[in-house]
Design a protein that fits this description.
two-stranded antiparallel ribbon
Amino acid sequence: MDLATILGFIIASAVVFLGMVYDTSTHSISFLNLGLFIDIPAFLIIILGSFFCTVAAYPISILLGLGGTLKKLVVPPITPMVENLSLIVDLSKIARKNILALEDSIPNLDSPLLKGGLRMVIDRMSRDAIVDMLHAEVKYRDLEMEDEVGFFKMLSTIVPSFGLVGTLLGLIVLLQNLQDTAKIGPALAIAFVATFYGVLFSNGLYYPMFTKLATIKMRVKVFHEMIRDGVLMIEKGERPELIEQVLINYLTPEQKGLYEDLRFKSY
């Protein structure tokens, strides 16, 4: 579970909420101030309007899989870089002695990409075929999250525009009823609250979600690229020391430290 995402949203929401209920005239908390920020027409225009406009730009599968996408923000996909690097190095030692001996290791592997790649190596497929299939597989897995990332990027971009729509509608109503003072207040409320909703949801919710998903997507891509290169180097018969030296560059400084500890304990 990613506590940073949870704590970030909770603390940010608490700060905004405190600003909404804080009464500057009495320097106290007044929950009555919340009513100033609630406007149903503005909510419908900005939140629902922008959401379903974005839905219209993507396949229905994105909407149906929204629950799974939100789950990734809290429980990101596991990318065991350190463990798989160590595993690839160990597998390369086996392959140097007898490539067919890898057959016994395949059922114990967790990564479908590593399983499939080694299966092709054991089956003695041509190197060009293995390279093409692995590159295609990595690209396909990378595209799995492309629509999810793009969905929230579009949301973060389009929400302020709908906030402007709400503001313009409020101003139109205001200008048409300048002589009726009772309607000026509600019209101004729609105008300013609409802008508030647009900025808040864009910068306070959708953009952080887009950034988080983009980060997760990049981590998964790097993980798959490391496995791809590891399989290709095993197929080429490279020395385990060289494979380790090359693939360790995929790790972050923190992961490199963990890897060194893991290898030290294995000796």
